[in-house]
Every structure is written in structure tokens, then in C-alpha cells.
Amino acid sequence: MSNIPACPQCTLENTYPDGANYVCADCGYEWPMAEAAPADDEDEAVVKDANGNVLQNGDAVVLIKDLKVKGSSITLKVGTKVKSIRLVGGDHEVDCKMDAGNFMLKACYLKKV
What we know:
Blueprint: E1 15-18, E2 21-24, E3 30-32, H1 37-42, E4 61-63, E5 67-68, E6 75-76, E7 81-82, E8 86-87, E9 94-98, E10 101-105, E11 110-112
Antiparallel strand pairs: 1-2, 2-3, 4-7, 4-11, 5-6, 8-9, 9-10
């Protein structure tokens, strides 16, 4: 099945790409291919802490729960302050450096200081 969208004017699926545009063969309507792409790029992922505060690179946060580190006997204790976090994509949104090492943490276990 083709990933070429149907015509937004006549809603027929007889469309084809032509340079930077899609063209409808039935009604002759042309529209840009990149029309929908900027809408996805503009809305960057907003990372929020456990209280709903927006986190940014360089913020300081505190752990709100004891976290056991998989594959290790280390436990990150509640109340541990982490300075200069870095936001990254993926399941674990926060990359940070602590005394125990470097960790990737979920923002739902952090509170902004």
C-alpha cells in the first residue's frame, strides 16, 4: 500500500509526487509534501518532573523515591540532589552524573529544586 496521501481537495487517492509537491491526477490540485512535517518538528517533547514542573538542561533535581540500579547492589536514596541534568530522548529522559556514577533516570522520580 502506498504512503502517498489522498487529495485534500477532492479526497480521491489518484495522487503522485512531482518534485516537492503532491499532485492529484483527477482535479489537478497541488500541495507541498513538507506541509505536515513542520507540525511534528515544532512540538518538541516537554519533560516534566513528578510535580509537573518543566525540566530543562542544567537544572538541579532531587530524587523522590529510592531507586535500585539494575544489575548492581547500588540504591539511589531519596533526597539525593543531582546537579546539571541533561535531557535526552527515549524512555529514560534525564541523563545525570552522581557520586555513584552516570545514570539515566525517568523524570517521574525527580523533583525540580
